[in-house]
Design a protein that fits this description.
The complex is a heterodimer. Chain A contains eleven helices and eight strands. By secondary structure, chain A is of the alpha+beta class. In chain A, the strands form two sheets. Chain A has a six-stranded antiparallel β-sheet with strand order 3-8-4-5-6-7, sandwiched between helices. In chain A, strand 1 (133-135) and strand 2 form a beta hairpin. The radius of gyration of chain A is 22 Å and the shape is globular. Chain B is α+β, with helices and mostly antiparallel strands. In chain B, the strands form three sheets. Chain B has an eight-stranded antiparallel β-sheet with strand order 3-2-1-4-5-6-12-11. Chain B is globular and about 60 Å long. The chains are: A alpha+beta, B alpha+beta.
Chain lengths: 315, 201
């Protein structure tokens, strides 16, 4: 025999209501946060070059020497020009630096450097001279803390001597914000390694949409992996038509310690440049931290580490 | 009651002191005890790297699986192997490595539980410097409450500067220790330092 106290009944009703409300809120948030656009929709036109390396070099030659800018007191103008020349001439080289949260900005730099080097060069020179510049739909106008910090980042590997990357990455991190940046939205020294520079999946897709004149389709989210029936075929078919970014659990792909965690989270962005299948082995070639990397994985492993895929093509 | 309370505070405090002093003693003595093998691994790797740049990671606790990173100018190849697989030697041959020497290096790494070896560049006053570093998995550094830690030994190409506590710093004038790969390095000799880190690379 069991009996229920009156307050117990009330508590049960309240609990049910709470569960219903939480479920409703979860469904609402999930539908907003996760852009569930399937990859197998009609393919857009191929990605094409907006400008050429030769045009960018010709533009930089017209500039000659760059005067120092009061807007960026710690940026060395000669080094900035040298970095710009090196970046656009290629091959696409090390960019991100060590121990920073700049991987998303490094990954999206692939688009302007590869497809519009002239536009990118003009943007950087404008940003340096005027402290603000427009790219796509965004007017990038970094605050004084960021402008003073650019050129002072040290012990970050190649980033130490890449004033172009310091200026570009800090400006992007200052301009675009996502929910990961809520509690650290204003730059302070050392924030390049902290949540201030972090990028959630929705913010990444928003950055690509606003900065470049591309149609962006995305699958995935920050917590739940997207389902792929055949990950090789889907990524391969998309690679034929445009640029593919992957949002990955890098702890599994590129281990830095031997901790085993049941809860994987994505922490890294790369540009997928090729994928080849040989039996149950996939060879993936991706642009990671400014360097091309080839790695062999199984389809199961790739499905396990991919939390998001962003596909960009011409509108 | 008072006696119980003081015991409750005293015993955990003593445990923490004992654990931390164990870690410090280990750090100071590890290189001295294993210097011959560690120096030999460094010398072998430096020579092999000069011929063809690469890095090696032991992926598991049993030290049977490796990840080999072959570094070219524009691309990095990452391959995984079991140590007893024929594919390892085939791949080393294909990329024209000194296969016998690399296998010897892998054996030496295994004997001291060295999980990773690599060469890394860093910059001081915009001048490029480099170091070869190897990370060791050591049970003495493990703790129930903390994530696994690694003992990293770095060999610098040039003599380095240190503060009065023996911490590596960028220049003689620098007041703060220099962090390389997010770790503070401590002096063993002018060119050799160690760090205790939560990451092996």
């Amino acid at each position: 025999m069991s009996f229920v106290l009156p307050w117990h009944n009330k508590l049960l009703t309240l609990e049910k209501q709470y569960i219903k409300k939480t479920l409703f809120l979860f469904v609402l948030l999930a539908s907003i946060r996760v852009p569930a656009i399937a990859f197998h929709k009609p393919a857009p036109a191929d990605t094409v070059n907006v400008s050429t390396v030769q045009e960018a070099i010709a533009y930089l030659n017209t500039i000659g020497n760059l005067d120092s800018s009061a807007m960026w007191p710690n940026i060395d103008p000669a080094l900035l020009l040298q970095n710009l020349n090196t970046s656009i001439r290629g091959p696409l080289k090390s960019f991100e630096g060590k121990n920073t949260n700049f991987c998303s900005y490094t990954a999206l730099s692939y688009i302007p450097i590869r497809y519009d080097p002239l536009g990118f060069s003009r943007f950087i020179i404008d940003l340096y001279k005027n402290g603000k510049a427009k790219m796509g739909k965004s007017l990038i106008e970094p605050g004084s803390k960021v402008r003073n910090a650019a050129g002072t980042l040290l012990y970050k590997g190649d980033l130490d001597i890449n004033h172009l990357a310091q200026m570009w990455f800090l400006s992007l991190a200052d301009h675009f914000k996502g929910y990961l940046n809520l509690f650290n939205s204003s730059y302070n020294a050392g924030d390049e390694n902290r949540l201030w520079a972090a990028t959630n999946f929705a913010k990444f897709n928003r950055m690509v949409r606003r900065l470049f004149a591309y149609k962006v389709k995305a699958r995935g989210s920050d917590l739940v992996r997207p389902h792929f029936d055949d990950i090789y075929s889907e990524l391969q078919s998309r690679l034929q038509k445009g640029t593919v970014f992957l949002y990955l659990n890098n702890r599994m792909l590129y281990k830095k310690n031997h901790e085993t965690s049941r809860f994987g989270i994505p922490t890294h962005y790369v540009v997928l440049t090729d994928i080849i299948q040989d039996g149950n082995t996939l060879t993936i070639i991706y642009w990671d931290a400014g360097r091309k990397t080839l790695q062999q994985v199984t389809p199961q492993f790739l499905k396990k580490i991919v939390y998001g895929a962003t596909f960009c093509s011409n509108p | 009651m008072k006696k119980n309370l003081s015991l409750q505070i005293f015993i955990p405090a003593m445990l923490i002191v004992a654990l931390s002093s164990c870690s410090q003693k280990f750090s100071a003595s590890y290189y001295r005890k294993n210097s011959e093998t560690v120096n030999s691994i460094h010398a072998q790797y430096r020579q092999l790297y000069a011929e063809r740049p690469f890095s090696v990671e032991y992926k598991d606790k049993t030290f049977n699986y490796i990840s080999l990173e072959i570094i070219k100018d524009t691309i990095r190849y990452i391959y995984k192997f079991r140590l007893d697989e024929n594919k390892l030697a085939d791949t080393l041959d294909k990329y024209q490595f000194n296969t016998a020497a690399i296998v010897g290096l892998l054996e030496d790494m295994r004997t001291i539980r060295c999980t990773w070896i690599n060469k890394m560049d860093f910059y001081v006053n915009r001048q490029k410097e480099s170091m070869i570093y190897l990370s060791v998995r050591e049970k003495k550094l493990d703790s129930w409450f903390k994530p696994e830690k690694y003992y990293t030994i770095a060999f610098f190409s040039q003599p380095q500067q240190f503060d009065t506590r023996g911490r590596l710093k960028a220049t003689a004038r620098a007041t703060q220790p220099m962090k390389i790969n997010n770790a503070i390095y401590w002096k063993i000799t002018d060119r050799i330092c160690y760090a205790i880190s939560e990451h092996f690379r």
